[in-house]
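[09:14] KT: can someone run the structure on this one? pasting the chain below
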Amino acid sequence: MSSEYTIKPAIMSLDSLVEDHEPVAVIKSDEEAIAAAHIIAAQLQAAAIERDKNRTLPFAEVEIFSKSGLWAITVPKHYGGAELSIVTLCRVFEIIARADPSIGQIPQNHFTTVDDIRLEGTELQKRFFFDRILKGDRIGSAFSEARGKHVLDIRTELTSDNDGCFLVNGEKFYCTGAMFAHWLPILAKDTLGREVLAMANRRAPGITVTDDWSSFGQRTTASGTVILDNVKVSSDQILYTYRSYARPTNSGAFAQIMHAAIDAGIASGAIRETIDFVNTSSRVWIDSGVEKASDDPLTISEIGDLKYRLHAAEAMLERAAHILDASFLAATAENCAAASIAVAEAKIATTEIAMLAVNKLFELAGTRSTLEQYGLDRYWRNARTHTLHDPVRWKYHAVGNYYLNGKRPNRHNWI
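[09:31] RB: done, C-alpha cells below
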C-alpha cells in the first residue's frame, strides 16, 4: 500500500458514513441488463414531456432506475458484481437516453467513479464502495468548475487539518446528479498540486448542493452548484486519481463513450418521433401528388438517410465499445490510445446524427410539430446541450493526428 494513503490516520471510518436504504435488484447478465433497461425506459418515457416542461427533478425516477440494479453492472466480479461489458453498458445508456436524455445522463459520473475506484482504490476502498454500490448507493459529481480558464483549471483544495483528517474547500458547477447522490466525488488539488478525488458523503457538514442549472436543455439533470466549506474527509476517502493519467489507462475513453451513447439515444428517440408524427399528424405537401405524408417520396428518402446514418453511428459506437473492452484486458499505451481514438470517432458519429436527427424532426414533421403540446423541442434542446459537453471539433484533430502523424492523444478525461 502506498504511503500516500497513510499520511494521516483514518479518524473517521467509512462504515460510519453509510446511509441505510432499501435493497436493490442484482443483475447478473447482459440479457438481464438490456431487459431491465427497456422496462425502466418505458416508465421514464411516460412523463418525460412534463418533467422537461416543468423542470421537475426526477427524484422518484432516479430511485426506480437505480433500484433496478443497472447502476451496479460494472462492479468487478471479484467484489460481487457482474462486470458486464462496455458494449452492454453503452446499450443501456442508449436505451435510457432515448426515453429521457436527462435521466440517461445522470449515472455517467457514477460509472466513471466506479472505474476510478477500480483503478486507484485501496483494497479497503474497493471492498467498501463496491459493496455499497451493489446495495444501491449512487455516486454523483463534483468534478467541474465554472471559473477556471479551462476544464482542468481546478481550484478546489484539499488540505490537512489539525486532527488527522483533511479539509476540502471550493466551488463546483456542472454537478450532474449531485442532488440524487449518496456520495460526491470531489475533484481537488492536494498540497503538492496533484488531482485527487475526495469521496464525501452527500450529506456531510459543509456541503451545499444548489439546483441552479438553468440550461435550455438537459433540464432535469440537476447539474448545478456544489459549495464545499471545510468538508472533512479521512484518508480512506481519498482516491489519488492523478495516477490514472500518469500511466496508460482507459479512464478518458471510458468516460467519453457513455456520452456518445447518450447522443445516440437522443438521435434514436428523435427519429422515432419523426416517423410517428409523419405517420399520424403531418400533412401532405401540395405538389407531392400523394394522399399521405408517409407516401411523400422526398420524406421517404430523408427517413432512409436518417436511419442509415443512425445505424452507422450505432455501429461505430459498438465498435468502439468492443475496442475499449479489449483495452481493459490489456491496457498498453498503444491499446489505450487506439481505444481513445475509436471512442472519439464514435463521438463524432453520434454527435452528427443527433444534431441531424433533431433538425430533420421538424423539417419532415412540419410546422405543427413545433406546437408546445407535443414537447418535441426537447429533442433539439437536449441534443444541442449535451453535444457541447466537449468540443467534437477536437475529436477530428485527435483522430487525424493519430493516423497521419502517429501521435497518441493526450491523457485526460475528454479523449
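[09:33] KT: thanks! Residues 247-405 form a domain with the Butyryl-CoA Dehydrogenase, subunit A; domain 3 fold (CATH 1.20.140.10).
[09:34] RB: yep, looked fine to me
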